[in-house]
Specification:
Structural class: alpha+beta
Number of strands: 12
Shape: extended
Largest sheet: 5 strands, mixed
CATH topology of the largest domain: Nucleotidyltransferase, domain 5
CATH architecture of the largest domain: 2-Layer Sandwich
Oligomer: single chain
Strand content: 15-25%
CATH class of the largest domain: Alpha Beta
Helix content: 25-40%
């Protein structure tokens, strides 16, 4: 999709989450933060919801463990294509080596910093309740300033916000299959959903519905109940997918 319509800006969000396991899975481990035994995979999404890359990791590793092996191939995929890359991450990715890598790669970034006494003092005035009756709606106040932690080689601009109100191999393959299924679902949501359709509910109906497969000599027929996806809507989805097909390459002419 990106080869046909290269995006000008790509925002990469890196995050980890728990993947509970049951029984004795190789390299699964208890994670005190999530309070469960399992794996601790790492993901990189873009702003369109596409899963750019993922990796299965043992359950007891830090959230940022192996970040370079996951992020670097994603960055190299866009290198030289005129795409501006931005990175977003939580406090688990607030490490100087990550900052240095992003700056060398020319990526803009916004990474949450763990709360410290110095930072709290810098934005203390934002945390005070204003005089008078509190507003009914949520209000946010922001500030930015130069800051350098002891482990940083140079100061950076930071901001603050105030608010008022073997089995393992099988598991790794399963994670990649789940990632593929997610991206296929997101593909249907963004590029192949007819006007007026509800994207995610439509995907569930398409993916989870049972079908009878009838094989003939020259073709295969999938028989599905129209109560889930009407025939015209299914036809419209196939039509939208067909329009995304790349045009045939011109035939090579002889000398």
């Amino acid at each position: 999709m990106h080869r046909r319509r290269p995006p000008r800006i790509v925002v990469l969000d890196m995050a980890s989450r728990e993947s509970p396991t049951y029984g004795k899975q190789e390299r699964s481990a208890y994670n005190g933060h999530f309070g469960c035994t399992g794996y601790h995979p790492l993901f990189v999404f873009n702003q369109l919801g596409d899963l750019e890359r993922c990796a299965l990791r043992p359950g007891n590793v830090h959230s940022a463990d192996g970040w370079r092996e996951v992020l670097e191939p994603v960055g190299s995929r866009y290198r030289g294509k005129g795409t501006r890359l931005y990175f977003r991450g939580g406090a688990a990715f607030a490490y100087p080596e990550i900052y240095e890598f992003l700056e060398v790669e020319g990526m803009g970034y916004a990474i949450r910093l763990p709360a410290t006494r110095v930072l709290q003092e810098k934005i203390g005035y934002l945390l005070k309740r204003p005089v008078g009756r509190p507003p009914h709606e949520m209000r946010r106040y922001y500030a930015s300033f130069r800051y350098q932690a002891q482990s940083w080689k140079k100061p950076s601009r930071v901001g603050g916000e105030g608010r008022v109100a073997s089995r393992r191999a099988l598991s790794a393959v399963r994670l990649q299959l789940h990632a593929l299924a997610y991206n296929l679902g997101n593909f249907v949501r963004t590029l192949a959903t007819p006007a007026g359709g509800e994207p995610w509910s439509l995907q569930e109906k398409l993916i989870k519905i049972g079908a009878k497969v009838v094989s003939y000599g020259c073709y295969v027929v999938f028989q599905m109940a129209e109560v889930a996806v009407p025939r015209q809507m299914f036809h419209d989805i196939l039509r939208l997918i067909a329009r995304l097909r790349a045009p045939p390459a011109p035939a090579c002419e002889g000398p």
